[in-house]
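Good morning,

Both structures are done.
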Amino acid sequence: MARKFDTIIIGGGHNGLVAAAYLARDGRDVLVLERREMVGGCSVTEEVWPGYRVSTGAYLQSLLLEQIVRDLELAKFGYRVEAKDPPFFSPFPDGRHLFTWQDEAKTHEEIAKFSRRDAARLAEYETHLERLAEVVESLLLVTPPEFPPASIGGFVDWLKLAGRLRGLSAKELAALVRIFTQSASDFLDDWFESPELKVTLATDGVIGANAGPKSPGTAYILLHHCMGGVGGRRGVWGFVRGGMGAICEAMAESAKSRGAVIRTNATVSRILVRDGRVKGVVLSNGDEIEAVQVASNADPKVTFLKLVEERHLPDEFTKQIRAMRCEGTSCKINLALNGLPDFTCYPGTPGPQHRATMHICPSIDYVERAWDDAKYGRPSQSPMLEMTVPTMYDPTLAPAGKHVMGIFLQYAPYTLRADSDRAATARRQDGFPVTWDDLRESFADRVIEIIEQYAPNIRSIIEKRQVLTPLDLERRFGITGGNIFHGELSLDQMFVMRPVPGYANYRTPIGGLYLCGSGAHPGGGVMGAPGYNCAREMLADGR
């Protein structure tokens, strides 16, 4: 054995770095092991082409908890976020368009073009959503109670949880139940009549989800994306100076300033277990490193089905981990541009539309049909597109006069049917199933065709492109099925059920082994809460 540490963190993604920084702040001897050449996990900035620095995975920031930002002094280490304004731009096939703005009066005027009733209701809707978000946010930094409760302490924890809901009226409690169970479409139908406004808002309910806007549970995903904020303003999203990797670079510097050691190009191949307790890890080069505690920032399937030998885990636990739904349906396309998309419905470049998240999804039914394709194993013929141009806020990310554009889209199912693409099927003479390696470029071509219907110049301004299908996301970032949340955010995979019932308190069946990534409560997004909560429990357990 080499040097012994108090704690080893497997994976240098944002949650692992948060956990490392808090543990090191408490005096723990901490080692972070990251398999890639850089820290950050899915929140990285990479020079994909010379002079172009791209947020290859995560692309916008809002969810990172302010407490973590303050505690880790991230501003001191270079963390800066610029609020996105306007937040949204939606072009429509009939030549109309919709902006939302940080200025409430301007947003009211925009929505009134489609429905005066909806414009009048927007403030009430946002207040309602904020009230629900306050309740849910109060649970983000809570360790889920024992489920089902099997001890006095377990019952006490549930009583404490119930106490958090005491201030809610009967109407608000009913609304809370509905948002966890309703579809985004049904939730928005209760508030608005304009199809254009509803689909613009509904996008937050399906981003990263293995579901359509009419699927039960997507109302919560909408709420999940409305939590957090920028500059003290709730629900606001922004661009990080230096790209999304700047978040984790600041976290890494914070952790190191407190004594944590961070090693990159260090792949963990196995977690060492002896007599039911963790003893350390083995690296891919054969090196063994000993530790009293180990926290895995990898997703649950990687942690328990690849890094831990099955003989060390209860059969029922392993069965439930295998059953956890972890397949993604998102694709990320990154473009190097020598100009900006010129929209027919709002011509001119540059313009406010390029500072917004630009949606191409003209109706709820359009998005639902896109999901219909995916749920049967076919890439969407007409996917929902969410486009951003970070160089409008940070020109240093590209050479002078050039731009970076990211396209995050739904839906691109991880598992493909054999008949997903007849041409690709015909090419596969080797008898193997069609994979994303066969469809990657043709799917990206289709995406560009769709953008072209709204911005005819798009093809002429593309210099380079990078296409990351769910298979590529799995390979690049080590996330099972390319699922950006480390597992679906569905009611049966949340809170006391995440990752599986009985193990939602960040501990595992192996003594001294913890789960600190997005596969634990409260789930995905660049939030930091799983890492924070896990570190708290590790400190409570002692060395």
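Second structure follows.
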Amino acid sequence: MTGVTIDVGGTFTDCLVMDGEGRLGQFKALSTPEDRGKALIDCLEKAAHAAGQDAREFIGGIEFIIHGTTMATNALLTLRGAKVGMLTTEGFRDELESRRGLKNIRTSMYNLLVPPYKPLVRRYLRLPVRERTLYSGEIETPVDVATVNAALDKFEQEKVRAIAVCFLHSYANPENEDKVAALCRERFGDAVYVTTSHEIRPAAGEFERFSPTVVSAYIGPIVSDYLVALEKRLAQMGFRGSLMMVRSDGLVQSVAHSRRQAVSLINSGPAAAPTAARFFGSLLGHENLISVDMGGTSFDVALMRKGEIPTTTDSWVGDERLAIKMVEVHSIGAGGGSIGWIDSLGLLRVGPQSAGADPGPACYGKGGELPTVTDANVVLGYIPTDYFLGGEIVLDAERSRRAIRKMAEPLKMSEADAAQAMFNIVNSLMADQVIELSTKRGYDVRDFALMVGGGAGAVHGAHIAEQLGIPSVVIPKYAALYSAFGMFAMDVGREYVQSYMVGADKLDLGRLERIYRGLIEEARADLKESHAEASELVLARTAQMRYAGQFHEIEIPLPGELTSAADLKSVLETFHARHRELYTFDLAQRPIEFRTFSLRATVIRKRDLRVASLAPGGKDAAAALKRRRHCLFGKNWIDTLCYDGGRLLAGNVIPGPAIIEEEATTVVIPENFACSVDHTGSYSLKRR
């Protein structure tokens, strides 16, 4: 049986195919923004051709497809979502707009000229419903159906495409939200997308619950329509396996669940990259990693200590607050397709605008005329024009030079100097993003290895490390399909949460266990969608805790069921230790509060992911020498040795400057680095 992972990015769609023996085949296709599912099918057809099978026969033999996509993120960032109506508790229609006085996390608290926030739902579509649930879960006021129907009349008149139901304290008792959601579905059927706040985030905090719920409604119709169309398209081609989606929290879940919780697909593709980094880091003996993924459109960074994938509930996408759990990945618009331009001060800038897949960089010959990072790399000699994607795309170097020339002439620079300036600028932008997650948080980058992925990452990785002083760079096997590889190593499952706000000295262990029994029952029911049996579930408990009076919580693992005062004391000691680790101090005399309890339910893996060992060889890599090419390193054009990545052996050592040409990427080794090939087929670059 065959397993497939597919990551649809802004420029390329990446596909990895695992056969019954665990062997991996890699395929890429240009993404198709006008028809999001076409590139996915293109990849499957390439895989079928490579296997010598008809596409329908090949797709019919696929056991599962794990799919990551930037579609949800892009819909939110570009504000191309649906027209949303919001139903909320009477008196709370402005909660979404006041948002507890918070500014966007990327805005200085001292900036007095921040433009007013524009909610995704205009005020005239945020309509009150007479109802009230208390924090205890007691329903003080049942739903007034007349106010609901009046609001739905308004929504019908305004032709809204989605409805977000956001009531006070629905996390404690969702009865009123469920009743109103049923009325909405009875009225509009499938024509209007309906979601409720207790489904999205069943935890305390009105704004933190309302905001991601509205986001989920805003992107819900786009996500739902895409997934329905994709399932239908695959079924028509004979697919009978399981189609699953990568969630923002680093887990994999069924399509049915993903349609209901569209917001969980924000950062769906990038969320898989740290899993790939951890997998290769464990093989190569690296626990502390800075994972970077440079594709055609964006650059994604995650910092991992002791092999732990970082998560956060404090994320923003654009101006929208997402309080759901997400893998902590920071992204900027810096990729191979990032466009070079001259600002109003006459300074050279790069990105965040991207040429994307259509028209793409000038060298693609698809009509693009603006200079991109890929064009700069072609002019510098780093990328082979005849072996891009294994020769599938022939790059036009003259088009790259013409595009760079248009920018170079106003700056009175040569083509080569302008290309190198673009190369250095984008490297600096990416290095700054790494600093945001490391140095500015008190971590020394010299204690980390730089794990580099993405189709463009191997070209720039060593130069980023050189700017930052990172001594070790790892370019893993399948780096060009970094996130797609990580999807194979991800767990199928979900995380369930329930608020129980109580001081540690008043925690009722019996009530806590009843909460977890309810979460476990919910997990068992939900995971049937993924064809999992109760015996296959792996359950892990955590708690969100804080010192009394603090604003932010820390997530602490719980050692199974808490049955005694000694168990509770152990958890509190773990909290103090974790606080010291994160902030260098603790407040041992300060009372501790529990805020939210979580259950992570995953399915036991039926197949281990492994990478075939590379044949051993000596240090001399001369047998893999492919050709020489003039490349610009620093101020000098150097006759550079270019090696065929497919012919290298474990143990080969290549001193810089040199180029390794892989089918889906190109590894650039600067002058003061040396590259060694390890048993996994990965490249380790170290400063000489």
